[in-house]
């Protein structure tokens, strides 16, 4: 499905990073090693690399990875791209200073729990998770994201899922976004910034 969605020449979610990532760019420390999860067409990984983060990005879609590589060339940055299924990703223990996961809500709850655990595992002690997504209120807006309530995030869900991390920021809000044709219009959003102890 995703490979088909990313088959066209246009960038489905645009070439610019998620506004969430721009708003939290102070966490993108030059020299840090960062992972962008299910990165899509490269907009977030390219932004991370442009801020000086040694960036690894993974996505299951070959078409998305090809466009991501083209975007990295266009912007003159280096990103280590991997075409890999999220369920096969190794989640190397304590490998990254930063894990970024933006709109990865294609995961059903049991799958989501395993991926969340992997993201925590791959963070170094003191490393930071930046997670951004939609709340269930997004379904009424219909401006992007899954139309399956159980795939969406609430503050209570994220507090429980990342109970082992120090919650630095957890904020649900509504805002107009314009991130390609895939995410456009008034949106019900939620941001999590959390630090791994150590």
From TrEMBL:
The Methyltransferase domain, residue ranges: 35-127
Domain of life: Bacteria
Pfam family, one: Methyltransf_25
Family matches, as InterPro entries: Methyltransf_25, SAM-dependent_MTases_sf
GO molecular function, one term: methyltransferase activity
Statement: the UniProt record of this protein carries the keyword Methyltransferase: yes
Keywords in alphabetical order: Methyltransferase, Transferase
Protein name, entry field: SAM-dependent methyltransferase
């Amino acid at each position: 499905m995703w490979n088909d969605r990313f088959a066209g020449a246009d960038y489905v979610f645009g070439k610019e990073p998620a506004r969430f990532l721009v708003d939290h760019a102070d966490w993108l420390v030059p020299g840090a090693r960062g992972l962008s999860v299910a990165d899509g067409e490269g907009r977030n990984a390219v932004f991370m690399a442009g801020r000086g983060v040694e960036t690894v990005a993974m996505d299951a879609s070959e078409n998305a990875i090809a466009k991501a590589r083209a975007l990295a060339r266009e912007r003159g940055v280096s990103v280590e791209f991997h075409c890999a299924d999220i369920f096969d990703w190794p989640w190397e223990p304590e490998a990254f200073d930063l894990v970024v996961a933006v709109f990865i809500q294609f995961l059903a709850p049991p799958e989501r729990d395993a991926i969340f655990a992997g993201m925590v595992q791959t963070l170094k002690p003191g490393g930071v998770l930046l997670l951004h997504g939609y709340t269930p209120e997004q379904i009424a807006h219909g401006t992007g994201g899954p139309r399956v309530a159980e795939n969406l995030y609430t503050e209570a869900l994220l507090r429980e899922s990342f109970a082992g991390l120090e919650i630095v920021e957890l904020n649900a809000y509504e805002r107009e976004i314009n991130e390609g044709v895939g995410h456009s219009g008034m949106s019900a959003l939620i941001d999590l910034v959390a630090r791994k102890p150590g």
